[in-house]
Amino acid sequence: MGTQLRAELTERGIAPDCADTIVVVRDVLARVGDKWTMLIVAALSEGPRRFTTLHASVPGISQRMLGHTLRALVRDGLLTRAAYAEVPPRVEYELTDLGRSLARAVDQLVGWVTQNQDAIVGNRAGFDAEQSTVTRPR
Description:
Elements: H1 2-11, H2 16-32, H3 37-44, E1 49-50, H4 51-57, H5 63-75, E2 79-84, E3 90-95, H6 97-133
Antiparallel strand pairs: 1-3, 2-3
Helix pairs in contact: 1-2
């Protein structure tokens, strides 16, 4: 998918290095903005966790989706996965330095949302009220 977007951007005259950056930014924001990533990062910000503990810490996530999301975060370098040769097997996940820097950035975003949530909710309500009174042609 990134290859197609990169080609489309280049066709529109965007320099290849800028197109590459746009593709990476879009992909990272898609990962960070998905339904589960931030909940997992928040749970791991308290320290390493086993799969079962993480599953209990993230309400509503299936084991399959947790495994899928953890693999993607390990692939991106945001988490490490440590498997211990024990019986029963033990696997722990932990934020990397990169993952901790993401957690700090998200904390700042959460602060911004908290400061501005009343304005955002008010703007949405105003927009929705305006849209409901607009007469639409048939």
